[in-house]
Amino acid sequence: VYMLGFQPGFPYMGGLPAALERPRRAMPRTDVPARSVAVAGRMCAVYPWRSPGGWHLIGRTPLALFNAASSDPAWLHPGDEVHWVAIGRARFDELERAAAVGADQRDAWLDGQGSST
C-alpha cells in the first residue's frame, strides 16, 4: 500500500505484474460498485464505496476496508503488503453476510483464510 486517498480507506497499491497492467479508462464510469478491485497502470485499488471511477474492474472483495465507527477505521495502511487470495462464492457470501450484521471482518478473514496484510 503506497497511500490512502480519493476516498477514506481507498488504498493505492503498486507492484502489479505486467500482465495485469491497464491504462486508465478513456471514459470513467459514473457508478463503480463498493468493494470493487480495480487496476490502472501498475496500480491496484479497492473502492470503499459506490462512486465514479476511471480504473478497470477486475473483481470484488467481500471485505469492507473502511469503518468510520472503528478506533482504526482504515484496515490497510501505507507500507502494508497485500496478498490477494481467491475465494469461492460460498466464502464470499459468508464474509459479506457477516459484514451486514456488523461482524469484525478482519477476524473472519484471518480465521482459516490466510493473512491479507
Task: Describe the protein in words.
The chain has 117 residues and is of the alpha+beta class. Helix content is 18%, strand content 21%. The protein has two helices and seven strands, in the order βββββββαα. The chain has a three-stranded antiparallel sheet, with no helix packed on it. A two-stranded antiparallel sheet has the order 1-2. The chain has a two-stranded antiparallel ribbon with strand order 3-6. Strand 4 and strand 5 form a beta hairpin. It is globular. The model has no long low-confidence stretch (mean pLDDT 85).
- The ordered string of helix (H) and strand (E) elements is EEEEEEEHH
Residue share in helices? 10-25%
Oligomer: single chain
**Class per helix and strand makeup:** alpha+beta
* Strands, count: 7
What is the approximate shape? globular
Physical arrangement of strands within the biggest beta sheet: 5-4-7
Q: Which regions contain 5 or more consecutive residues with pLDDT less than 50?
A: none
